[in-house]
Design goal:
A: 97 residues; Alpha-Beta Plaits; two-stranded antiparallel sheet; 4 strands; B: 190 residues; Pyruvate-ferredoxin Oxidoreductase, domain 3; 7-stranded mixed beta sheet; 24% strand
């Protein structure tokens, strides 16, 4: 893989602070922060049909070798995956608050 | 003048709670102004609602920087914002939580604490964690600044209908009854 | 003469957006066109709800954007309807073309501007930049201090806009967030009271979309070729004349309203504790509440300060401002927006212009605060009072002070 850059990188320190509102730092928002219920997957029941992955509105379903798991950093606890799973493999449990 | 700051997240009804509380207080003969503060209208973003109550006309419509009471209707919003910012000495703190008082580090200026497991009760009543009317009941119980009857009348005058109305009236009741009020002894100076 | 007991006014707790919607229902508006934009969104939701509930008997038109909102209302007005909409910020910008056309065609209508700081920098919060950006277009602009004033003024606006000597559209401006979503106790006038106050709609007696008497509305006019420059000048002067008549119409409407419902708002400017004041603040909109509290606080310490609130911004009440401020030594004008031509506030520029005709010309300074939803607190006003007092000593009009610069 080439390490040469073909265009100059943007150097925000060269831009005066009162010139133009831009943001150059990526600050990921983690909606998992305000969840009150979280999904728990029963690995024995999961058949990797990927219905939960299809339905999840924030795309936080993660494919593992033998099952699908939930990325709790972004999961908002909406419960759609639990509702849609044809195998009833996902249940919503209370988040300790 | 009594100043209350309500903290919650977008979509939980913090702003509506401010309006219902305002209506109840006005019904009891007070002057009230309730101003919300929020950014993009989206679920989950921290929101604050500011409510001023007085026996005479209130003119300023600004945010509240030195609240007498801080009312948190979300269990996690304290992680996102400093809910105690500017709280007056001897202030009151109301919190939605499943934890007991011993698990909290209570802010040094707080003298009265009202704790209510509103999320659990809300899930029982509404099947969703909507805590706003529950915490209004908790507020009435903890501060005594508004009566449960006035809150009931305000909820009845709002847009809730049928099942929603019954649920919210029950929530007021349960919030009132299932809140534990703690009075903190004045701390010794270090 | 039988004594008729006045029914106790119905009081509700509501925010400014809901209050505006109540006013629109009570004014028996015929047609509203809507598009949501923060912080006006709940206003159009209330309108839709009131129509669904039968409270507002109006044709409600959902359109795809604000350009169409105002274009639809033009059609409605030319067909004789009493019309209404509300917008702000980018929505106002999107309707700029028909916005320009409305006063030129002398179309009576009322539009709420839920004032918002125009992006860019990106902002959804309160400020006056949007309404100020269009102040030269020829709409009448009235600013409200309280939620009650929003309701009362929106109703009064119909009397002003449809007045035969005015026939100019009105912006009722209420501050985004503070007044749009801020709730307070509001007295609702009864339908009888509003019917006694407002005559039936008189909107298109001068220009109409009527197949039985066809006419071209806004044909090419003036300049070189065609009818010549004099015709264009005649219409522009007519607009100016309408604007000047508006001053009296606004005063009369406020007087009539006070007589019917017993609530009096100052129509052009309001003078607060100005009788023996040495220095004065000038404010616009909801910031006034905190300003009055700051004046009371300073007065309790012996400072001779007063406050002048501007309610009618366009037409600018030159005589009233000059009269209100001619007794003081120094003035601090607090703006919630910026005029880039001269790096100060637009209200400030209008005030010092008006002071040219005053008997005595006080020194004046510009203060800009509350941009993008920042608060102008009593502390900020306290600093303004101090700075203006210093002005009486040294007479040195300093540079514009940006109140939230270090907040």
């Amino acid at each position: 893989m080439s390490t040469r850059q073909s265009y100059p990188m943007f150097d925000s320190s060269q831009v005066p602070g009162d010139l133009c509102p831009i943001a150059t730092k990526l600050n990921p928002m983690l909606p998992g922060d305000w969840r009150s219920m979280k999904p728990v997957v029963d690995r024995a029941k999961c058949v990797k049909c990927a219905v939960c992955w299809l339905y999840c509105p924030v795309q936080c379903v993660v494919e593992k070798a033998a099952w699908f798991d939930i990325n709790l950093a972004t999961c908002k606890g909406c419960g759609i995956c639990a509702n849609e799973c044809p195998q009833r493999a996902i249940s919503m449990v209370g988040e300790g608050a | 003048m009594y100043e209350i700051r309500i903290h919650g997240r977008g979509g939980q009804g913090a702003v509506l709670a401010g309006s219902i509380l305002a209506a109840a207080m006005v019904n009891e003969g007070n002057y009230v102004v309730a101003v919300p503060s929020f950014g993009f209208e989206r679920r989950g973003a921290p929101v604050a609602s500011f409510l001023r109550m007085d026996t005479r006309e209130i003119r300023q419509m600004t945010n509240i920087y030195r609240p007498d009471c801080v009312l948190c209707i979300d269990p996690t919003v304290g992680r996102a914002v400093n809910v105690f910012d500017g709280i007056k000495d001897g202030g009151t703190w109301l919190q939605t939580t499943a934890k007991p008082l011993s698990e909290f580090q209570v802010h040094e200026k707080v003298a009265t604490v009202g704790l209510c497991d509103a999320v659990k009760i809300a899930l029982e009543i509404f099947k969703r964690p909507i805590t706003n009317t529950l915490m209004l009941g908790a507020f009435a119980r903890t501060t005594g600044l508004v009566s449960l009857d006035a809150l009931r009348a305000a909820v009845e005058e709002s847009d809730f209908r049928d099942a929603g109305l019954k649920q919210n009236l029950l929530a007021l009741e349960r919030g009132y009854n299932e809140t534990t009020v703690h009075r903190i002894e004045k701390r010794e100076a270090a | 003469m039988s004594a008729v007991l006045k029914p106790k006014p119905k009081a509700i707790v509501c925010d400014g957006n809901e209050a505006a919607a109540w006013a629109v229902s009570l004014a028996r508006v015929d047609m509203v066109a809507v598009y949501p934009i923060t912080p006006q969104s709940s206003l159009v939701e209330y309108l839709a709800k009131f129509v669904a509930d039968g409270k507002l008997n109006a044709e409600i038109v959902d359109v795809e954007g604000e350009h169409s909102v105002l274009s639809v209302l033009h059609g409605g007005a030319l067909a004789g309807a009493r019309t209404y909409t509300g917008t702000c910020g980018p929505g106002l910008a999107f309707m700029f073309e028909p916005y320009l056309r409305t006063p030129g065609l002398r179309m009576p209508m009322v539009m709420s501007i839920v004032t918002r700081d125009t992006l860019t920098p990106q902002s959804v919060w309160g400020g006056h930049q949007d309404a100020m950006s269009v102040r030269e277009v020829g709409w009448i602009q009235l600013y409200c201090e309280t939620v009650q004033e929003v309701l009362d003024t929106t109703i009064m606006a119909y009397k002003v806009t449809e007045h035969r000597d005015v026939m100019l559209p009105v912006n009722v401006c209420h501050d985004g967030n503070y007044l749009s979503y801020g709730a307070a106790r509001v007295e609702l006038p009864s339908q009888e009271e509003v019917d006694a106050f407002l005559p039936p709609p008189s909107v298109n007696w001068h220009a109409a979309l009527d197949p039985s008497r066809p006419m071209a509305v806004d044909p090419l006019t003036g300049g070189s070729g065609g009818p010549g420059p004099a015709m264009f000048v005649r219409y522009r002067k007519g607009q100016c004349s309408g604007m000047q008549h508006a001053l009296a119409a606004i005063e009369a409407a406020h007087e009539d309203w006070a007589r019917i419902v017993g609530r009096r708002h100052a129509p052009l400017v309001e003078s607060y504790r100005m009788d023996d004041a040495e220095v004065a603040l000038v404010t616009l909109g909801s910031m006034t509440g905190a300003g009055k509290d700051a004046v009371d606080e300073a007065r309790s310490r012996g400072v001779r300060v007063g406050l002048v609130k501007v309610k009618t911004y366009r037409p600018f009440p030159v005589q009233a401002i000059a009269k209100a401020l001619s007794g003081v030594k120094a003035v601090g004008v607090v703006d919630r927006s910026v005029s880039f031509g001269w790096n100060s506030g637009p209200l400030y520029q209008d005030v010092i212009g008006a002071l040219q005709i005053a008997a005595r010309r006080p020194a004046a300074m510009s203060f800009i605060g509350g941009l993008a939803g920042a608060d102008i607190t009593t502390d900020h006003f306290g600093r303004v009072i101090e700075r203006v007092q210093a002005l009486t000593q040294d007479g040195q009009v300093g540079e514009t002070v940006w109140l939230n610069e270090r907040d």
